[in-house]
Design brief:
This protein is an alpha/beta fold. It contains 13 helices and 17 strands. The strands form four sheets. Strands 1, 2, 3, 4, 5, 15, 16 and 17 form an eight-stranded mixed β-sheet that branches.
Length: 429
């Protein structure tokens, strides 16, 4: 793992094609000034003056955009054929896996992620290690173990097994309140609740609602009381409605949406995280990875429902954030595939970029710090060869990611000096 490449406290990137994460159009011939890890000024090259102080670096017309954000990752998973194997992974190994995957995601241009379900309390540990500079990775919004009911998607192991590390199985209003409080004590930022079946569970299907309205409402109320956000795994019609009535912050997957739930989403502050990579990774890799028959058959059934649900939500103006559910079948670092898939349901490339920048930052409750290029925000930046609004696949090609900058410092990229590509980075403009 490479150390950060130190730039001066103050520098200016010149001749940028700027995608700010909010505007509908990019802007050419721009400059962006960075000071002490934050964006200090942005302006047109025609108006470049002495106020843009510091070392000047000519990016030669490359795209400069916010670092990408993935709202639905599982840092601990990867390389497991099924969820039982993933849960059986020792916590010690899970921490090593999560640390490695965090670094891989950073190299792929992701400067922030929301981890939505781990083994033990690994995502909190990785979050803190990154903050303390012990390891390199994106900013991590950490969840603990996913919480669900007996017989539901959290209850995935055979009856004669007992697991306290991989999932948290509880029942009743008081059971959920206690589980929330336990995770607060463990230091999480976000609570993940499983409200519907899941294709990887052998006994519950995605069309099933596995929680009561009372349980879910109590859980969300308790989490919000402690100032935490709540992400709800919701693949059935009723689970989405239960979650919205409870005041959930995000709806994960949204496999089955009808007119009522779409109207509820539109009228609420909740944000939809479609995780289309969840669907297509099974459809594309199911046979190659020898995934379970139930999982493959259920995803084949869900495809038309899922695509039409997200397409209808987008048409209705529902807020959508990018989250790839990376760590299950697609490899860590391929997160940007989700942006390509979002265009299949009708998003423009720029809308997909917004889903992975400014809208995603709202999910993380960090919209005033990251996700857009504006004065005072952290300098989490990508310098990219080409124009991703013309070809989103550029963001899946690491050779096109010339610089990945986190809080003003180069942490990855093919043009960074530790990759032998100092070139225009090291020469003075």
């Amino acid at each position: 793992m490479q150390d950060e490449i130190e730039l001066p406290d103050s520098y200016v990137l010149l001749n940028c094609r700027l995608i700010d994460g909010i505007s509908d159009e990019s802007r050419d011939k721009m400059w962006i000034s960075v000071a002490e890890g934050k964006i200090s000024r942005i302006g047109s090259m025609d108006a470049l003056g002495s106020e843009s102080s510091g070392r000047r670096i000519d990016v030669e017309g490359r795209t400069v955009m916010p670092g990408l954000i993935d709202c639905h990752v599982h840092l601990v998973y990867g390389g497991f054929r099924n969820m039982e194997d993933a849960i059986r992974c020792p916590v010690e190994t899970a921490v090593i896996n999560a640390s490695l995957h965090a670094w891989i995601m950073l190299q792929a241009g992701y400067t922030a992620v929301r981890e939505v379900g781990c083994i033990g309390n690994t995502s909190v540990a990785v979050r803190d290690a990154i903050r303390q500079g012990k390891i390199q990775g994106p900013r991590v919004v950490a969840s603990g173990r996913p919480i669900g009911t007996t017989g539901g998607p959290a209850d995935i192991l055979p009856p004669h097994w007992e697991s306290t590390g991989g999932r948290l199985v509880v029942d009743g209003v008081e059971g959920f309140r206690k589980a929330i409080r336990r995770q607060i004590k463990e230091g999480v930022d976000n609570i993940k609740i499983l409200a519907s079946g899941v294709e990887v569970n052998p006994t519950c299907w995605t069309w099933m609602t596995t929680i009561s309205q009372e349980e879910l409402s109590a859980a969300v109320e308790e989490a919000h009381r402690w100032g935490k956000t709540v992400a709800i795994h919701a693949q059935s019609y009723d689970s989405v409605k239960f979650a919205l009535r409870a005041g959930a912050d995000t709806i994960e997957h949204g496999t089955r949406l009808d007119d009522e739930s779409i109207a509820m989403l539109k009228a609420s502050p909740s944000i939809l995280v479609p995780t289309l990579c969840t669907l297509y990774s099974v459809l594309e890799l199911g046979a190659t990875l020898n995934l379970g028959q139930k999982q493959r058959e259920e995803m084949a059934t869900n495809e038309s429902l899922w695509v039409e649900s997200i397409r209808s939500a987008h048409r209705a103006g529902v807020s959508i954030a990018a989250g790839g559910d990376i760590g299950n079948r697609y490899k860590h670092g391929t997160n940007a595939r989700e942006l390509e898939l979002l265009t299949k349901i009708g998003m423009t490339p720029m809308e997909a970029i917004h889903a992975a920048t400014s809208t995603a930052a709202r999910v993380l409750r960090m919209a005033d710090q990251i996700g857009s290029l504006d004065e005072g925000r952290f300098a989490d930046l990508l310098v990219v060869d080409g124009d991703p609004t013309e070809d989103l696949a550029i963001l899946q090609d690491k050779t096109k990611l010339k610089l990945v900058i986190k809080e003003g410092q180069v942490v990855a990229g093919t043009a960074s000096p530790h990759r032998g590509g100092g070139g225009w980075l090291t020469k003075k403009a």
